[in-house]
What we know:
The protein is an alpha+beta fold. The chain has helices at 17-26, 30-43, 98-102, 118-128, 133-144, 156-162, 171-181, 194-202, 212-221, 223-227, 231-238, 242-253, 300-304, 311-348, 350-355, 365-372, 376-383, 415-428, 437-446, 453-462; strands spanning 47-49, 275-280, 283-288, 296-298, 387-390, 393-396, 404-406, 412-414. It contains 20 helices and 8 strands. The strands form 3 sheets. It has a 4-stranded mixed β-sheet with strand order 3-2-5-6, with helices on one face. A two-stranded antiparallel ribbon has the order 1-4. Strand 5 and strand 6 form a beta hairpin. Helix 5 (133-144) crosses helix 7, helix 9 crosses helix 12 and helix 16 (365-372) packs across helix 17 (376-383).
Amino acid sequence: MKPALQLRLGQSLALTPQLQQAIRLLQLSRLELELELNAAIEANPLLEKDEGADEDGSDVEPGDSLDAGDHDDEGAASGEDTFDDLPDAPLDLEHSDYRKTTGSSEDFEAQDAVAEDLRDHLLWQLNLTSMSARDRSIGVALIDAIDDDGYLVESDEALLEALAPLSGISVAEIESVRRRVQQFDPIGVGSRSLGECLDVQLGAFAADTPGLALARRIVRDHLEALARKDRTQMGAALQVTPEEFDLALALVRSLSPKPGAAHAAVGAEYVAPDAYARKLNGRWQVLLAGDCQPRLAINDYYSGLIAKARRDDANYLKGQLQEARWLIKSLKTRAETILKVARSIVSAQEAFLEFGPEGMRPLVLKDVAEELGMHESTISRVTTRKFLHTPRGTFEFKYFFSSGVTTSDGGAASATAVQAMIKKLIEEEPLANPLSDQGLTLELNRRGINVARRTVAKYREALNIPSSNDRSRLGSR
């Protein structure tokens, strides 16, 4: 074949730099967006924070393309679509007179207390305990080998290797210090097994505590039978009356199987809502949070230099100006899209807002995408790490999406609603006769929810609810 030139017509989607930027901004959380904008301001002299913007932090004008359809608020066109019009709105320290009335200085900073983890808590007690420097070194090594649940996970050989600098160290010395550590708060920490941990905790009770002797027998010799909830076998082996057994069992159940869990250093996670849903005048309305739309503007000084600058400098400033305009436009598009999606979610899930999780209706990304005329991938980006504040709490947008199961009347119930029904049935079940997965399935079917037993088991496990055997009288409830 001879090489030749051919002309062909075709259509293809090209991701322009502007579109790529808009997509990237859309999937960022509020914190990530703030970091992105700070970096952009540092890199682009034409960009600056707009200190003269409205207090709600939005450059989106009422009546703009924010309208999401027939379920939009009537006040949007009249200029009532502002965050400040909401009753009980969160206090905005940046734009209120709070600092003036309290006399706070400009350099006031909120400081969170540093969380103390289990290791810090134990080392603090070790330093207050009277012991030799040798024993204190052993204690530090033991504490370093304790996991977050409070159990000693290192073997004696590993501890001996870690303590090699101490000449002549023996397992007996390590064991002696470990026994002292077990009496630290939380008591039982440093144990090697569950039975030992519970036994140490029981050892702290007064000797005349009713049921104490039997409880120690149970944790030492019958933990496996206790885990199997085998009351008959345990009663026969212990040769005690049901009343004595129940008394000892209550004592065992008052113990902590994971003594270190209460001291886990888990910092509080704070989320800032991107939108608010409030019921005003009998209708659910959605408004963007005050600083969901960051305030950026074009720097007048540098933009005025374009006409006066030399050719190379002018070209540079023109390029920076174009990028600044693209960024501001992308931010506006981001705010518009978030508001549209939030309004669509609230419109679809009004029953949840009114009645709780049992009112959640099935909703998938495709439903919102078709309603708003957007692609599913766009909806997915908007619903990731974006939060909606409602009277029932603050939820990630994704929380409101779930698949559905059919009902006897031909409708559908969301997985979230079915989980809420399962949780309620279990909360109301007789303690001595908990509902099995099959029993839960039959009860849901009786209420018109066509769901299989394996689906019920999956939903129950997702709720971290133990099986019916584990919820029996010998269970943790």
